[in-house]
Fold each of these.
Amino acid sequence: MLFLVREDNKFDSNAIMILSKDKKKVGYVPEKDNIVFARLMDAGKKLSARITNIEKKGSFTKISVSIYLVDF
């Protein structure tokens, strides 16, 4: 399981950081996808994520995740 955390970011007001179980930064939810998730989080909803694919692209590693609404 991954953790999603809203970040105060001057380049993207909807920035969401993705953290591993041990709280290390994995990356960010892409800007083109983050507005709905940011609004849910700002409304107090809890989201989590799971890695669905890891792909090496040259010197970069592309990590795909699925994001879930945590409903109690």
Note: The mean pLDDT is 94.
Amino acid sequence: MTVAGYLATLPPDRRAEVAKVRRVIRKHLPKGYKEGVEWGMISYGVPLRVYPDTYNGKPLCYAAIAAQKGYSSLYLMSVYASAALTAELKAGFKKAGKKLNMGKSCIRFRRAEELDLDTIGRIVGKVPPAKYVALAEAARRR
């Protein structure tokens, strides 16, 4: 499935909210990541030609957006792998007066306006693929 195909499967209101978050990610995404559809969601990963040593044979996932049944999710794997980025995300949401509804790497939202898109864009833009591969390898060693 393509990203356009994934978006076409969503109801118009959900498609619009996911598209807003997707625009922020694409605007700030460092060069070298590839957008696609993996695991039933829009994903941004390190291509296998760059980093083939993944545990599942799929591109190393950096970020993803999924429309769930009752909400949407934004996955920021660099935040999961870095305490400093987690702290920055929490501080950004607090400063913006936004409530952060977050699991380990998943930020849940119904509308893009619930998110601090400036902080999300900044965090997405901070970790180029080589740095993310190093973070992932360090996490694997633990």
Note: The beta strands are 34-38, 41-46, 60-67, 72-76, 106-109.
